[in-house]
Amino acid sequence: MTADILCLGEPLLEFNQQPDGTYLPGHGGDTSNCAIAAARQGASVGMLTHVGADAFGESFMRLWADEGVDTSGVRQVGDAPTGVYFVTHGTQGHQFSYFRAGSASSRMAPADLPTGLLEGAKILHVSGISQAISDSAADAVFAAIDRVKAAGGRVSYDTNLRLKLWPLARARAVIHAGMALCDIALPGLEDAEQLTGLSDPDAIADFYLRLGAGIVALTLGAEGTLVATPDARRRIGGRLVTPVDATAAGDTFDGAFLAELTAGRDPFAAARYANAAAALSTQGYGAVAPMPRRDAVEDFLAESPA
Asked: Taking a C-beta distance cutoff of 8 angstroms, is the pair 243, 236 a contact?
């Protein structure tokens, strides 16, 4: 049985700096984070990717199994490694250092895509990172989008701009092409400012609506989210917490938002829920460990219903 939400992209083993200077091992990668966040809200989720036939790849296979994420679209390959990244923390926030060149995921190509899984998915979730890691991966994302849409499914796209992976001009061209094919646009404000040259959130929302998205959820950091459709728009306020580490807060938003949409919620209610989930995810170190489950999110919303 095909998962309702299918996430395509690169998983990365994470080493997150702790206050004592040691590094805590964990798991990351934006679309894998999204998959886990959605699964923790009770959604039916699957991963579509390659990992190495190595200890790190095995670690991801165990993680996804434990989290209830379907791995029938995951292939372990013996001639390429699973990528790694390090997170350091300073006065300017968290910073990332990546070791992913030639990773298993970066070698994905259109011919590797499992047609059946794509045709059965209600939502395919991809990102700018999914396309930035290699030319063949970028082509694979476009091919996956075509197959999902041809079968009547929807596409979710998070800009997740990483200029260490590609120059802005190329990122802008590819991401705009991907966003023009999506149904659910999930840009972050800082990314969107660089990609569109605009600074006003409403103008940015209009830009992505004109590209063709039916739903735009523009995340505004602590200020919450601007949600826009062709017929309505609303700012959904953020949730007040004391953050420790913002790693994967945006991915947590994505997963919770998509989980709520597939459960039949309207995009404004989905954003309210996803804002709460994202806020809770900043209260611990690492991408995956602090991601809340549904009961924690619902308790948090009940305690602060605004």
From this structure: no
For the stretch 94-126, pLDDT in tens is 788 888 889 999 999 999 999 899 999 999 999
What are the tokens at 82? 């699973």
Domain boundaries, the chain: 5-10+30-51+109-300
Give pLDDT, residue 74: 98
For residue 304, what are its two tokens? 């602060």
Q: Interior CA angle at 286 toward 161 and 103, to 5°? A: 55
Q: Which whole-number Å values give the CA distances from 125 to 4, 35, 69, 277, 280, in the listed order?
A: 11, 9, 14, 18, 22
Which one of 3.90.1170.50, 3.30.70.20, 3.90.980.10, 3.40.1190.20 gives the CATH number of domain 5-10+30-51+109-300? 3.40.1190.20
The answer to pTM > 0.90 is yes
Question: What sign for the dihedral angle of Cα 103, 105, 106, 111?
Answer: positive
* Side-chain half-sphere exposure of 279, counting CA atoms within 13 A: 23
Question: In which band, very low, low, confident or very high, does the pLDDT at 244 lie, cut at 50, 70 and 90?
Answer: confident
